[in-house]
């Protein structure tokens, strides 16, 4: 299955330090009444052309767009927030039962074609995927009650995965971490360390690799980014341990090696990444695709990385160490790239105004 050739990018001459995955539990933010509105954030344009769209967020994790309106999840508070054109933040609801512990909490969100909102979050019995109806219009959205689609996905204070997105096939995909149970990534009966594929109702599609199973691919450590190119190819970004972070092309039924291998192994039993980085320059989280390029939000690397899919080795860096840790990146309806910083998540060094969402023009070419 080792059908992909890897390209090595941005190694450092420094000794590689293991990703500090374990952190002290993070206290949950106080609940704020549903529908509360923040003061408008002052939108500002940076000398480099980037614009701060909103600021003062608390550990934002995921950006999605509901009928053109930006929606953001906050990891520790469990809040889902809509962002107005002037940067005003308005809470549309709180996901009940969120357990914010370390890297766990309210993580990825996605919107289905009918306008339903899906959320991946950590609860008392593990990670779960829930669907919510949303009523109202921009400026008055309200989150309805939860319908649990999948639950008891293994969780821990670290390695929860958590990114969800609808693919071009109309199916919902979800990344799950190994939750510190490395061997579970190779266990076909476990939902840990996998990429899952399901119908919008949370059921296993008939054409999944294994009948009746949500598992689409296995052998993942902590993937947090998924995106599709124009031809339907699925890409996923993944945190390594102390050697290599990865960008993979994900194939149905593919095995990506963890914990047997990390990074390029040259082992026919596993699929190699197309790119790998030392964790200190990467720690990739959310990714987005636009005009032939995969854009990767990096936490420890504090950089937005651009990877041309026709020449991955030509990857370039954008806004390196300008805004601190970057958690997610999304292609907005207006054709610009939006990315969310993650400096208030307990591992960053917040500056005045953090956390924020920043908008940039797509790079030329």
Keywords, separated by commas or semicolons:
single chain, 365 residues, mainly beta, Neuraminidase, five-stranded mixed beta sheet, five-stranded antiparallel beta sheet, 26 strands, disordered N terminus
Structure summary:
With 365 residues, the chain is mainly β. The protein has no helices and 26 strands. Mean pLDDT is 89; it is low at 3-47.
Please tell me about this protein's structure:
The protein is mainly β and 365 residues long. The chain has strands at residues 7-8, 44-45, 51-54, 60-66, 69-74, 79-83, 89-94, 106-111, 117-123, 126-135, 142-153, 164-166, 172-175, 195-198, 215-217, 223-228, 234-238, 245-250, 275-277, 284-290, 293-298, 303-308, 316-318, 326-331, 337-341, 357-360. A hairpin with a 5-residue loop joins strand 24 and strand 25 (337-341). The chain starts with 6 loop residues before the first strand and ends in a 5-residue tail after the last strand. Mean pLDDT is 89; it is low at 3-47.
Q: Which structural class do the helices and strands define? A: mainly beta
Strand order of the largest sheet: 1-19-18-17-16
**CATH architecture verdict:** 6 Propeller
Oligomer: single chain
Biggest β-sheet strands, sense, barrel: 5 strands, mixed
Rounded to an integer, what's the Rg over CA atoms?
19 Å
Give the low-confidence spans.
3-47
One letter per element, helices H and strands E, the order comes to EEEEEEEEEEEEEEEEEEEEEEEEEE
Residue fraction in strands = 35-45%
